[in-house]
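Standup notes, protein team

Yesterday: finished cleaning the Poecile atricapillus set.
Today: RNZ1 protein structure.
Blockers: none.

Input for RNZ1 protein:
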Amino acid sequence: MSLEITFLGTGAAHPTPARGASALVLRREGQCWLFDCGEGTQTQLMRSHLRAARITKIFITHLHGDHIFGLPGLLCTLSLQSSPDASKAPVDIYGPLGLRSFLWRSLELSHSQLLFPYTVHELVPTWDQCPAEEFKDFSGLDRAEALPQGPPGRVLHLDPAEDSYLLVEDEQLVVRAFRLFHRVPSFGFVLEEKPRPGKLNVQKLKDLG
């Protein structure tokens, strides 16, 4: 399995002319997985050797603006580069509770209609991931309003046995989120490659004694 990491932005709080807000891309077998999407991420993508159209998954660590303000714009740009295709697999977006509402509201208020499907999988944080006075319960956000056009997706709870959240699993790797402590609930992501059985050339071993 081939993995390649490209840092698009490593700045904090606000971008500078020489340093973008937080974003990095993991390229894996033709797919691009984006981790965080600060302001200007799509511009940084254009300057890189990567193709934004290959982004299939997006992982958001937390809901501070320097990690999410670039996301609605990036999705709109991807839509402009797309053609309607009902059979296309959705872009999977993972992040803290509240991310679905942020995206839906941003796109709805800006009259933006995406030509590709996307799903938002929200991680339910625990109260001990930030100072008590900063914790906000977003579990009831928009619940009173019907969101028939809102994006689908799962609501993921902490697995106490693993002390993590299972996000993705295929034949090659497992992706989990784990809790971090920050001013707002935050998550880190772990990509763990599954064991690969080796292959022995028995005859060559015999020839070598």
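Follow-up from PR in the comments: The two ends are 32 Å apart (CA to CA).
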